[in-house]
């Protein structure tokens, strides 16, 4: 039987290898093909559309369209500021090689300079700055002129830090695979113009100054900064390439001879974003370097290099003065039918106007793009002998006006949607005539205007061929719907849901259009017309590589993060999150824990649902990370976990966390876990709707909420309340079984604000039959019975459209909104939750907390080593390093909700936002876990639905389910021999 199985496996392997061989041999290769063609969009058709937002930059420029562009050059030394407010500032005579009057600014407060403008007109504002040590995030400032922000976009100005690989030499793990190099900041003096960080405007902002004295104020939103100089000027415009080429001829420049310089993409010297670490690309054996079975760091950019303003810079040395051509071996297999756009800088300067827009066309294979007007007409660059730099920066180019127009359509269509639902509600009566054309007379015109806009954008994207693609299909669908609704307004109510969904999809389309990814294998600096290497592998090279990779798949395991085997002390650790997190933890272990303690760690990435069966079978780990708050007590009751309070320094370790964070892990006078993440609710609101449009105040107490809800409902808008918690990415928590359900965050909030409790009598019985709990349960259900709040909501989408302009939800929703809804950036904020006023006027804002834990198992042989690991993992230094590395890898959407209070304060939160988080954190109360308590949340939800959906009495319903809770608690206590 075994022999037959071996034969079957052998034949299967041979058949698979033959299939791979056939696929490779008969697939279309790109070797020798012409490079894909870059076709810029023709956006001239957008010129007739007014697409500015109220208070935005376009509107500002329109007001000053006739203003001059003076040639004056006004300079202001950083240290000559006239005043500061809320900021501890220093005047420096010298800093990092620059002398003069310099200003060191803090991460909060403002600094003001006086400027005397001789000639009225529009000026660009430049800044010479140095990035001092902060929280490793980009610097953000708000600009005001004479006390007012000139336009909305000036409220968020971004200044990049500069990053580099911490080491120029790549490290390898014990299995011979390259490790992704750690990114380190490279502080330096930089000069930057105040410009749009989203890329919606290619050119730096222009600011109007009348003749006379003005005040320029920069307010810190996050991160400190040293400022050497500000300047108001209008720089010279770069020449066209033809003008530059003529200068070359006039000066007699000649082509360099016999030069071919190769610079590997992964050897970039600087980059604008810590996310832009080099990576492993296995798409072709022609990528340099390449190994059939090992991971090699061999490419730069990729999907991470897609957002406007991100740049990567390489350096090279030319052997002689002369004219050179520059080429990039690239792969742009992301944007079908489009080019990924870059701006080219040579030695920190844009050499000519055409270099502002370099397009890399779509192709599934690697291509060599010679920068120029075509394969036979390359751009020539005059470079002197010596060291030079080449930088590519993501730009939107001609796409910028397209996305501005689309964003304006989203905002206006969402606005008209809110007007419509103010009459129809979100679920209109199909048999009622709402006479919307009379109640909203501008509705049809708005639909027609934006239908025309979207059709124009679709035509631009489809190009002269007019073929529909995945980027134009949605535009055509929505344009048709808008046109048809304008002609037949009586159909609007019945199509309202699809209209909302299409506008929501347009928001996703907007984000997709701003993403411009590109992978670079290497760049070539060569003699013009030189023969360049083929970008792709031959078919034989592919066959050889695929065969070797197939053979290696039988013994290589790329998901094993274990350390090198040794004879010393070791700890087995399981992590239940994702590969990115596991890689970061592994690097931190190698760089810090093992190096400091000599204890090796065998780290494995596993699914959360195998933790229980593995423990039962005796195959579990010593330590598990990122387990749910319900796990420690559930396992501790079965003697599966180690009581951490027995370690002599436990009391010192627990001071790292709020007392509330330890509550879920307490059991029979012991503690069976340490908190990793702590999540809790805050209140998000749309500033443009609540404050500007409706002229309402953000509620401070529940009485304010009761007054606000009717005002919203007059317009068929909604107030959102949470039914469950969120994870670190802002998505709904998912439990590993159908029974366990955490208690409702809203009920916990109301209960705790009135000194209620989930359990009583030493956690031996449910406390939800007490009068205070019954009262708060009724208050909670009344919000849905009397005020008709929605039970289940997609908060992110409804918040985005403005249908739900205010709501309470876990603060990790911040991470999701930053990435998910770019069109409402700057239009929303968050504050602590509404509270309950006390007799002395204090507002109690108690909320329940959730999160995850790290645990040690009872069967661990070396408990001291495991305890050292847990202390290291939950320390301020490690949690801070992990949180920052998460943002380095995945961006702001991965901001880590650490339970370590000191580490949280050092993560890159804007100063004002951090203050609000810390204010809410002091009101967090832990939800206890008890034997049998896993049914508490489920029965609370059952009781809620019987009252809200079936109309039953709150008191009787809660009493009915409390009996079930108590029976389960009593049964489990009896099972585990508890008193």
Describe the protein in words.
The chain has 979 residues and is α+β, with helices and mostly antiparallel strands. It is 32% helix and 23% strand. It is built from 26 helices and 45 strands. The strands form eleven sheets. Strands 1, 3, 4, 6, 11, 12 and 14 form a seven-stranded antiparallel beta sheet that branches. Strands 15, 17, 18, 20, 23, 26 and 28 form a seven-stranded antiparallel beta sheet that branches. Strand 30, helix 10 (579-597) and strand 31 form a beta-alpha-beta unit. Helix 4 runs antiparallel to helix 8 (496-514) and helix 17 (745-753) packs across helix 18 (771-785). It is globular and about 95 Å long.
Task: Name the features.
single chain; 979 residues; alpha+beta; seven-stranded antiparallel sheet; 45 strands; 32% helix; 23% strand
Count of separate DSSP helical elements = 26
Give the fraction of residues assigned to helices.
Answer: 25-40%
What's the count of strands? 45
The whole-angstrom Rg is: 31 Å
Structural class: alpha+beta
* Estimated share of beta-strand residues: 15-25%
């Amino acid at each position: 039987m075994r022999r037959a199985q071996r034969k079957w496996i052998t034949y299967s392997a041979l058949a698979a290898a033959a299939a791979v061989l056939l696929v490779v041999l008969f697939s279309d290769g790109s070797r020798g093909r012409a490079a894909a063609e870059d076709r810029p969009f023709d956006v001239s058709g957008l010129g007739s559309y007014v697409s500015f937002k109220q208070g935005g930059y376009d509107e500002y420029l329109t007001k000053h369209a006739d203003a001059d562009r003076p040639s004056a050059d006004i300079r202001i030394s950083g240290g000559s500021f006239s005043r500061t407010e809320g900021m501890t500032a220093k005047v420096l005579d010298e800093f990092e090689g620059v002398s003069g009057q310099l200003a060191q600014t803090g991460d909060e407060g403002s600094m003001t300079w006086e400027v005397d403008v001789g000639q009225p007109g529009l000026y660009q504002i430049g800044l010479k700055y140095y990035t001092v040590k902060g929280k490793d995030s980009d610097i953000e400032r708000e600009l005001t002129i004479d006390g007012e922000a000139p336009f909305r976009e000036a409220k968020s100005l971004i200044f990049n830090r500069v990053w580099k690989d911490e080491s120029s030499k790549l490290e390898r793990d014990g299995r011979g695979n390259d490790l992704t190099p750690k990114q380190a900041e490279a502080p330096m003096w930089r000069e930057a113009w105040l410009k749009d960080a989203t890329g919606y405007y290619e050119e730096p902002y222009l600011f109007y100054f009348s003749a006379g004295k003005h005040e320029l104020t920069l307010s810190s939103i996050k991160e400190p900064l040293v400022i050497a100089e500000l300047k108001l000027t209008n720089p010279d415009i770069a020449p066209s390439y033809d003008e530059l080429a003529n200068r070359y001829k006039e000066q007699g420049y000649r082509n360099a001879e016999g030069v071919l310089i190769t610079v590997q993409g992964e050897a970039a010297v600087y980059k604008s974003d810590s996310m832009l670490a080099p990576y492993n690309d296995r798409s072709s054996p022609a990528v340099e370097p390449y190994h059939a079975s090992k991971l090699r760091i061999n490419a730069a950019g990729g999907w991470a290099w897609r957002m406007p303003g991100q740049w990567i810079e390489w350096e090279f040395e030319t052997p002689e003065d002369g004219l050179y051509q520059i080429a990039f071996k690239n792969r742009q297999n992301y944007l079908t039918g489009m080019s990924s756009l870059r701006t080219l800088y040579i030695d920190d300067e844009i050499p000519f106007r055409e270099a502002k827009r370099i397009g890399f066309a779509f192709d599934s294979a690697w291509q060599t793009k010679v920068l120029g007007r075509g394969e036979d007409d390359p751009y020539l660059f005059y470079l002197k002998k010596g060291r030079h730099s080449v930088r590519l920066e993501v730009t939107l180019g001609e796409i910028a006006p397209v996305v501005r127009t689309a964003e304006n359509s989203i905002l206006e269509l969402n606005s008209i949607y809110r007007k419509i639902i103010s009459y129809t509600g979100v679920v209109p009566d199909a048999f009622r005539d709402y006479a919307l054309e009379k109640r909203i007379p501008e509705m049809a015109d708005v639909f027609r205007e934006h239908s025309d806009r979207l059709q124009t954008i679709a035509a631009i994207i489809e190009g002269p061929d007019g073929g529909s693609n995945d980027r134009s299909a949605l535009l055509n669908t929505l344009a048709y719907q808008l046109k048809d609704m304008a002609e037949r307004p009586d159909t609007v109510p019945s199509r309202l849901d699809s209209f909302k969904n299409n506008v929501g999809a347009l928001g996703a389309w907007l984000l997709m259009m701003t993403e411009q990814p590109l992978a670079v294998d290497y760049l070539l600096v060569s003699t013009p017309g030189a023969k360049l290497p083929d970008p792709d592998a031959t078919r034989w090279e592919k066959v050889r590589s695929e065969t070797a990779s197939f053979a290696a798949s039988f013994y290589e395991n790329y998901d094993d993060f274990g350390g090198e085997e040794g004879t010393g002390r070791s700890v087995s650790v399981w992590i239940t999150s994702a590969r990115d997190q596991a890689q970061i933890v592994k690097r931190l272990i190698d760089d810090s824990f093992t190096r400091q303690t000599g204890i090796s760690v065998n780290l494995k990435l596993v699914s959360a649902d195998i933790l229980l069966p593995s423990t039962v079978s005796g195959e579990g780990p010593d330590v598990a990370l990122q387990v749910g708050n319900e796990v420690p007590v559930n396992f501790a009751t079965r003697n599966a976990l180690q009581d951490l309070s027995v370690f002599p320094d436990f009391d010192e370790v627990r001071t790292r966390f709020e007392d509330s964070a330890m509550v879920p892990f307490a059991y029979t006078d012991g503690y069976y876990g340490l908190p990793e993440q702590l999540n809790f609710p805050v209140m998000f609101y749309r500033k443009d709707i609540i404050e500007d449009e409706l002229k309402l105040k953000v509620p401070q107490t529940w009485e304010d909420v009761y007054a606000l809800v009717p005002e919203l409902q007059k317009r068929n808008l909604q107030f959102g309340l949470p039914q469950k918690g969120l994870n670190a990415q802002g998505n709904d928590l998912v439990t590993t079984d159908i029974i366990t359900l955490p208690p409702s965050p809203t009920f916990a909030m109301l209960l705790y604000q009135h000194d209620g409790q989930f359990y009583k009598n030493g956690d031996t019985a449910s406390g939800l039959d007490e009068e205070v709990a019954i009262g708060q349960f009724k208050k909670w259900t009344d919000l849905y019975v009397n005020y008709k709040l929605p039970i289940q909501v997609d908060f992110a989408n409804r918040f985005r459209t403005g249908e739900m302009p205010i709501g309470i939800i876990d603060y990790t929703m911040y991470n999701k909104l930053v990435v998910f809804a770019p069109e409402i950036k700057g239009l929303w904020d968050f504050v602590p939750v509404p509270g309950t006023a006390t007799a002395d006027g204090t507002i109690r804002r108690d909320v329940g907390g959730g999160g995850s834990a790290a645990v040690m198992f009872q069967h661990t042989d070396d408990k001291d080593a495991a305890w050292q690991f847990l202390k290291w993992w939950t320390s301020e230094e490690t949690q801070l390093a992990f949180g920052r590395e998460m943002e380095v890898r995945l961006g702001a959407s991965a901001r880590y909700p650490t339970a370590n209070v000191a580490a949280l304060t050092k993560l890159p939160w804007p100063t004002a936002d951090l203050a609000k988080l810390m204010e809410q954190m002091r009101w967090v109360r832990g939800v206890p876990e008890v034997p049998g308590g896993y049914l508490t949340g489920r029965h609370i939800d059952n009781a809620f639905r019987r009252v809200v959906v079936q109309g039953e009495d709150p008191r009787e319903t809660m009493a009915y389910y409390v009996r079930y809770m108590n029976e389960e608690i009593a049964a489990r206590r009896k099972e585990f021999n508890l008193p």
